[in-house]
Each structure stands twice: as C-alpha cells, then as structure tokens.
Amino acid sequence: MANPLQGKKVAFLVAPEGVEQVELTEPWKAVVAAAGEPLLVSTEPGSVQAFHHLDRGERFDVDRVVDDVGQADFDALVLPGGVANPDQLRTHPRAVAFAKEFFDAGKPVAVICHGPWTLVEAGVLEGRRLTSWPSLRTDIRNAGGEWVDEEFVRCDCGPTVLMSSRKPDDLPVFCARLVRELSQPTVPA
C-alpha cells in the first residue's frame, strides 16, 4: 500500500517548550511519508521550542491549541518525550484530559521516552504494559502499569492500542511500528 495513512490525522501533543526534537520530527516524518496528516497540538498558540537533550533546537509552529480540539478531530495521538515537555503537560488539565480522551474512545496512542508522564497523570496505565526512559519505571508502576525494558512495546490489553519506546535510539522501530499500527483497518476513523 503506497499511502497507508491516507486520510488519517495524527495529533502530536507537546508543551510550548522542552520536547525532544528528534522524538517529534522522526515520527512526524514517518506519518507524512505514509500520506498521513500530522498536526502539532500544544497548550498555547504560536510555536514550540524543541531541544536536543539540553540544547535548544528548532521552533515548530503549533497547528491547534489543545483547548480547541478533542479526540474526535484525530485518528491517533503521539506523545513525544523530552524531560520538560511531559512534565509541563501533566500540569495542564486540558492536555491531560485530551490524552485520556483517546483511551476513552479506544484510539491508538504512541508514546516515547518521558512521554508516559502525561499518561500517568491521566490515570490510564492501570493494567497496561509499556516501556519508557528508565527513570519513569517507578512512576509507571505506581500508576498500575507494568514497566519493561524493551525497544518497543505494543499493549492491546484495553480498547486502546498503546505503543511505547524507551529513547531516541528506538525511533526506527517506533516509527515503523507506528505507521504499521495506524494503517490497520481496525483503527477508528
């Protein structure tokens, strides 16, 4: 299939500052290459400041503000990492609610590195198996999830397929599996 994500809209939820740039750009490129439509959703309009670990990276224009959208506007959600990014998101009630909406609706969610902090706050990890940056292990376990140290984890033990990876080195597998999962006919439209 030449355009497996044709007609699919994928929300990339990030804070105004602190997203790990490669964890935003690589999955974004994978969605575009598969003919999907990625949209950058943030808590504020304008642009977001990405980082390369602790060094400033590029700025990216926000497509939608989280206060103005809901899960019904998208087919899937991607939560990139970076330490500051999910730490800011988990303190923003609407961002947390937006992430939870995807679980309530049974839509796919993909998360990498520190991204699961937003899901911990959303209370959606009970009984879920996932991976992350190792420092989130205790947070995930305390939220009722099963943390594992694997390159990619697909958990379908609920109505939402949850895809997770640990770090930027896992991005090739993360991106390929994200596109494969979202191209399945069972993904809600």
Question: Which features characterize this protein?
Answer:
189 residues; Rossmann fold; three-stranded mixed sheet
What do you see in this structure?
The chain is of the alpha/beta class. It has one domain (9-182): 3-Layer(aba) Sandwich (Rossmann fold). 30% of the residues lie in helices and 27% in strands. A seven-stranded mixed sheet has the order 6-3-1-7-8-12-11, with helices on both faces. A three-stranded mixed sheet has the order 2-4-5. The chain has a two-stranded parallel sheet with strand order 9-10. α1 packs parallel to α6 (171-182) and α3 (93-105) crosses α4. The model has no long low-confidence stretch (mean pLDDT 96).
Shape: globular
Report the radius of gyration as a whole number of Å.
Answer: 15 Å
Order of strands, main sheet, comes to 6-3-1-7-8-12-11
CATH topology: Rossmann fold
Q: Structural class, please?
A: alpha/beta
CATH structural architecture? 3-Layer(aba) Sandwich
What is the residue-mean pLDDT, rounded to a whole number?
96
CATH class group: Alpha Beta
| Unreliable residue runs | none
Kindly report the name of the CATH homologous superfamily. Class I glutamine amidotransferase (GATase) domain
β-sheet strand percentage: 25-35%
End-to-end span in angstroms? 18 Å
Topology readout:
Elements (H helix, E strand, L loop, with lengths): L8 E6 L2 E4 H13 L3 E6 L4 E6 L2 E7 L2 E2 L10 E4 L4 H6 L3 H13 L3 E4 L3 H7 L6 E2 L6 H6 L3 E2 L4 E4 L6 E4 L5 H12 L7
Parallel strand pairs: 1-3, 1-7, 2-4, 3-6, 7-8, 8-12, 9-10
Antiparallel strand pairs: 4-5, 11-12
Helix pairs in contact: 1-6, 3-4
